[in-house]
Amino acid sequence: MGDSKENPAVEPAKPKIKHDWYQTDALVVVTILIKNAPSDKIKVHYGERTLSVSSPLPNTDAEYSLELELAHEIIPSMCKYVVSPSKVEIKLRKKEGIRWTLLEGEGKEEKIKAIPQAVIDASGPQQPPKIFRKDWEKIEKDIKKMEEEEKPEGDAALNALFQKIYGEGSDEVRRAMNKSFVESGGTVLSTNWNQVAKEKVEVKPPDGLEFKKWDE
Q1: Is the residue at 212 inside a domain?
Q2: Whether the Cβ atoms of residue 196 and residue 174 lie closer than 8 Å to each other
Q3: What digits encode the pLDDT tens for the residues 78-135?
Q4: Is the pLDDT of residue 4 over 90?
Q5: Which pTM was predicted?
Q6: Could you tell me which residues are beta bridge partners of residue 44?
Q7: Domain residues for 126?
Q8: Residue pLDDT, tens place only, 184-202
Q9: Largest CA distance in the chain
Q10: What's the total number of domains in the chain?
Q11: Phi-psi bin for 105: left (phi > 0), alpha (psi -120 to 50), beta?
């Protein structure tokens, strides 16, 4: 009889955890597909251009780890994460109003077009719809904190406000802002979808100005 050989112990393969990302004008959101992650044991560290995440994997002895060198700077104090049964979402606050082309490495900058002052003047004070009002107080606090840190003035402060509303608003708020801005020729900016969805938004130039088409 030949000598018997014992098979070496085979370690179970670690689950492959995927991550992805998307962005708004104000945020970069990193999504990690960890199911039933223990929210009390997740560790997330934000640097000006780094993100570090670690979490035990449920029903295993393994630990998930993610280390990212971000393409652009973020504001660590305004970042947060949310744990759900199917994923972990990490919301990174952009330091500059630019469109990221990459999550990691040296990304190219694409400036986000500022909202014209005429649009802001014509639109007047906006009342948020009910679906958005529950977060209004928090958004105002975030804007105040961002203004204290970056000290924007004049147009920059107003642009930051509208970019903040668009970035953190619901789908209805974004649809309302897009529809009103486009249909009014850039003279109206509304967050109330229930109002602007009913009919085309008319052009409303600021007082003392007359709206004319290019071919007139």
Answers
A1: no
A2: no
A3: 999 999 999 999 999 999 989 999 999 875 555 544 445 555 555 555 454 444 444 6
A4: no
A5: 0.46
A6: 53
A7: 117-196
A8: 666 677 777 777 677 776 6
A9: 104
A10: 2
A11: left
Give backbone dihedrals phi and psi of 158, rounded to 5 degrees, phi first: -65, -40
The string of DSSP letters for 148-195 reads HHH---THHHHHHHHHHHHHHS-HHHHHHHHHHHHHTTSS-----HHH
Shared-domain flag, residues 160 and 179: yes
27 Rama class: left (phi>0) / alpha (psi -120 to 50) / beta? beta
Token look-up 């719809």 returns 129
Answer yes or no: do 106 and 123 share one domain.
no
**In whole angstroms, what is the distance from residue 43 CA to residue 108 CA?**
30
Give the orientation angle of helix 155-168 with respect to helix 136-150, to 10 degrees. 140
Both tokens assigned to 59: 């029903």
For position 91, what pLDDT does the model report?
Answer: 95
Residue 175 CB contacts under 8 Å (≥ 6 apart), including other chains? 193, 197
